[in-house]
Amino acid sequence: MTGPPADDGAADSDAPEATVTLPADVVERYEKFSRFNSPYPAHDHGRAVDLYPGAGVGRSPVAGVVREVRTVGCPDRPYAAAEDHLIVVDLADEWCARAGAPSGTVARVLHVIPEVDPGDRVAVGDALGPTTRSGFFGQWVDDHVHLGFRPPDANPLRASGSLPVAADLHAEPVAWGGTGAVVERGPTHVVLDGPRRSGSGPAFAALASDEGVPLDGGLTHYAGGGTFRGKVGSTVPDGTTLSLFGTEIGSLRAGDADAGAPGVEWAPVDVLANGERVTGLSLFAARGDRFGVKVVCPDREFEIGESVTLDVVASDDPIRLGVG
């Protein structure tokens, strides 16, 4: 989960609604991506994207000239660095044209220790510096580049009022029965060996709802989640009810960026692992034929190789993690 500094929630009332659409060849440089896997408002409304490089190097998803670098405070977490960093980039007109962004749009990059300076010109794929473990995101979250955009003439240090973000690619929706073996274990999570994809189709894949919609976000430990663009040519109407493992988990909400991948208002449900409640599922689009599901479970221990069956059940007191 990520959260930029000065993120006070609602978008500025006069902010343009042009959507910045990341080209497919930019997103495909990363191992995973997510727009909704965070409790922070910018993510909750599809106005930021997290890009996971997987190699400890924060590579630039944009082209332009560095305007400013700044060290910022972040929540005090025992597993995290005491500070985070913001890199502001004035985007090149050519990059803006490819992404459908107004000329003069500014990019905001977080969670990278800057090895660039104001005035430096950066291209897509250039190393900005090493990624950092930030108190803005949970212990179970992998290092990543947080990316948002501010319209021309807006305060680039603010997150509120950022432009909607979309990705110009599709994620294969992969159905899964909910049972898998533990292949990775961390202090607050485990990763299961399912689901598996066919190996063909789009570069990215994501866990599918029962209706075949690829899911994004923290199910349901963050109040809002989202979806990815599914099969080419397919559309899912706003308000469509989604379910997982036979239980309703929420409905698509209108008004978010990128109508092909709207947000979801999660229903009040709990996630169970082998019959006991866990915090939730951390969902994203990932490359590879076996991308795994990450189970957030700081109060449970599972052994490598242990079989885990997930269920979703209605709840009177669902877990909801905030930004504090």
From TrEMBL:
Residues 21-166, 172-312 form the DUF8155 domain. Residues 1-20 are annotated as: Disordered. This is Uncharacterized protein. It comes from Halorubrum distributum JCM 9100.
